[in-house]
Structures are given as structure tokens and as C-alpha cells.
């Protein structure tokens, strides 16, 4: 089973009665992976029966889920699980959506191509794409785009998080001409406190998300860790980086954060040990009153956080998708 209950081992180190879990990290991208080749055997003026059968067949999503679940534990990778990086892959594929131009988003799986695969914010995500290639090979009827999103949903559930509705129907683009421009994903630091607050809103409002949804989605920083060879930053947000929880919010509200004394970019560490980290844009959500009220709600009520996260995450991963099963989403 996935290390979804790793938090139990660290709870004793938390302040009285507190649970210590972990937060999401961010790796960087490399070259394209997960390229898909498709072809059709043509006989006279019609498609072969083999091609027609493949086209009409539907993916067995229960099987795809199991195939994903089977690869989540990986000794030697970060904290023993690829779950966090799969969440980051789906997040970055989805977070490029622009509601104004209706471009970007998870439909198309365009991160397989340059230039998007080489965008700085995506550094390290080739590792996630590479690990999902065998899933696509075993399930050819499933699109790469759907596999990326479902992989993150399965990972969230296996790491103890909420059940997020999944609706297939995404397609795969065939060239990099559909890649969104660089700069659409959130940056770790814009230079000033007011600038960080404004930047967070600018990025998420562009997608059509509100303050509550922004804070809920940032709660995914309960998973994973940062890497100096990817984002340039280092360390986990929480002490249980493979457990989904509201611990990110508790730490933001109860721990004193000080600037890390190092030669890397500005980040913050907990004053009571320096084993955890926060980015400048993480602290932005407790430096703004409208953001902070939701941080405080989620720090006290994990059930509420899970419910709101599930809704916001489904919305995020469906932005820009026009042909999902069941038609338009709840939003």
C-alpha cells in the first residue's frame, strides 16, 4: 500500500494534539516524454477493421486506476512515492488555462512537446511523464491527457485525500503548436509581499478561480518537496510529504517562519528547527486578510478543506475541456 499514513510516525513530534503531515513540492521539466504515435491502416477507401475496433473501444477506467495505483510506491524516489509529482504534473498541465482566450488547460497533454516541456516551472516533470508511459501502453484507448489527470486523482486518494470526480474525454494534441506561452503558472516569488499577493490572484483569476478556490488548491502543498536542481528551492512543506491533509494550513498559522540563511533564492524555514520550508507566495496567503480567513478555516476543519479541495481540483483539471463525459461540469 502507498505510504498514505506516514503522518502517524511524525505526529509525536507535533505540538500537543497536533498532526504533522506534509506538503507538495515542485520539480522541473526536461525534454519531451510521453510522445504518442497513432496511425490507421487503410484498405482501399476505408479503415481496417482493426482500426475501427480500436476507435470504438473505450478505456477500462477501473483497470487504468489499478495500473496507476500499482506504481505509486517507488523506493528511492523522494520520500518513497511518486504520488506528489503526479499531482504536480496534472496541476501544471491544467494551470495554464486562460479563461479570456480559452487556451491552455489539461486538454491536449501539450507538455509532451517543446516549448512547454522546457518551461522553467515544469522542470522535473519529465520524471512523472516517463512513469506514466507504460500506463498509456497498457491502455491505448485512454488519452495521455486523461491519464495525467486520473493519475493525480488516484494519487490524492491513495495518499489519504478526498475522492475527486473524474470525467474522461480529453484528447491529445499532436504537435507543440498548441502549447501555451510560458509564464502562466504561479511563481514562487515576485519580489515583494504586495507583489506576491497580487501575483497569486493574477494567475488564478486568469483561470476563473476565486479566493476560496485559490487557498484550497494551495493546500496541495501538503504533498512533496522542492528540489534545488528543479525549482531552485529545497525542502518539504510538512513532515509527511506523502500524506494529504490540512497540515499545510496549520503550519502556516501556528509556526513562526523566518528567512532561510543560504545562498539559494529567498525561502522561509520554521524557526523551531529549520526542517520545513515555505515559499514567499505561500506566506502571501496569510499576509492577505481575504486569503487568510480561508487558511484559518482549513487549519481547523480538515473535512471542510477536503470537500472544498475536491470541488476546486475537479474544476481546475476540467478547465478548457469541451468533450468530457456528462457535458459541462458543475461549475
Structure write-up:
The chain has 331 residues and is mainly α. 38% of the residues lie in helices and 5% in strands. The strands form 3 sheets. It has a 3-stranded antiparallel beta sheet with strand order 5-6-7. The chain has a two-stranded antiparallel ribbon with strand order 1-2. The protein has a two-stranded antiparallel ribbon with strand order 3-4. A hairpin with an 8-residue loop joins β5 and β6. α2 packs across α4 and α7 crosses α10.
Secondary-structure map with pairings?
Layout: E1 42-43, E2 46-47, H1 49-56, H2 61-71, H3 83-94, H4 126-138, H5 144-158, H6 193-207, H7 211-218, E3 225-226, E4 235-236, H8 247-254, E5 257-259, E6 268-270, E7 277-278, H9 280-287, H10 289-300, H11 302-318
Antiparallel strand pairs: 1-2, 3-4, 5-6, 6-7
Outline:
The chain has helices at 49-56, 61-71, 83-94, 126-138, 144-158, 193-207, 211-218, 247-254, 280-287, 289-300, 302-318, and strands spanning 42-43, 46-47, 225-226, 235-236, 257-259, 268-270, 277-278.
Labels describing this entry:
single chain, 331 residues, mainly alpha, 3-stranded antiparallel beta sheet, two-stranded antiparallel ribbon, 11 helices, 7 strands, 38% helix, 5% strand, globular, disordered N terminus
Amino acid at each position: 500500500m502507498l505510504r498514505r499514513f506516514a503522518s502517524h510516525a511524525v505526529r509525536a513530534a507535533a505540538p500537543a494534539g497536533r498532526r504533522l503531515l506534509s506538503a507538495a513540492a515542485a520539480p522541473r521539466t526536461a525534454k519531451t516524454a510521453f510522445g504518442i504515435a497513432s496511425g490507421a491502416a487503410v484498405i482501399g477507401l476505408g479503415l481496417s477493421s482493426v482500426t475501427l475496433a480500436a476507435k470504438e473501444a473505450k478505456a477500462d477506467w477501473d483497470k487504468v486506476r489499478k495500473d496507476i495505483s500499482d506504481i505509486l510506491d517507488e523506493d528511492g524516489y523522494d520520500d518513497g512515492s511518486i504520488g506528489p509529482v503526479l499531482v504536480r504534473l496534472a496541476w501544471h498541465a491544467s494551470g495554464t488555462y486562460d479563461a479570456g482566450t480559452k487556451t491552455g488547460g489539461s486538454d491536449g497533454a501539450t507538455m509532451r512537446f517543446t516549448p512547454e516541456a522546457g518551461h522553467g516551472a515544469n522542470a522535473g516533470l519529465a520524471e512523472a511523464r516517463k512513469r506514466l508511459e507504460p500506463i498509456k501502453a497498457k491502455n491505448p484507448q485512454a488519452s495521455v491527457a486523461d491519464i495525467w489527470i486520473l493519475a493525480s486523482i488516484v494519487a490524492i486518494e491513495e495518499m489519504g485525500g478526498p475522492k475527486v470526480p473524474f470525467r474522461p474525454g480529453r484528447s491529445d494534441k499532436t504537435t507543440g503548436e498548441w502549447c501555451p506561452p510560458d509564464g502562466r503558472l504561479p511563481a514562487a516569488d515576485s519580489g515583494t509581499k504586495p507583489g506576491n499577493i497580487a501575483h497569486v490572484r493574477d494567475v488564478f483569476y486568469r483561470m476563473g478561480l476565486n479566493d476560496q478556490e485559490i487557498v484550497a488548491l494551495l493546500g496541495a502543498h501538503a504533498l512533496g518537496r522542492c528540489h534545488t536542481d528543479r525549482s531552485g528551492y529545497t525542502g518539504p512543506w510538512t513532515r509527511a510529504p506523502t500524506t494529504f491533509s490540512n497540515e499545510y494550513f496549520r503550519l502556516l498559522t501556528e509556526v513562526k517562519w523566518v528567512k532561510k540563511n543560504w545562498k539559494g533564492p529567498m525561502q522561509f524555514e520554521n524557526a523551531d528547527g529549520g526542517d520545513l520550508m515555505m515559499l514567499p507566495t505561500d506566506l502571501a496567503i496569510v499576509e492577505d486578510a481575504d486569503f487568510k480567513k480561508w487558511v484559518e478555516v482549513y487549519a481547523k476543519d480538515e473535512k471542510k478543506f477536503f470537500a472544498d479541495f475536491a470541488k476546486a481540483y475537479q474544476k481546475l483539471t476540467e478547465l478548457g475541456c469541451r468533450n468530457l463525459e456528462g457535458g459541462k461540469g458543475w461549475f
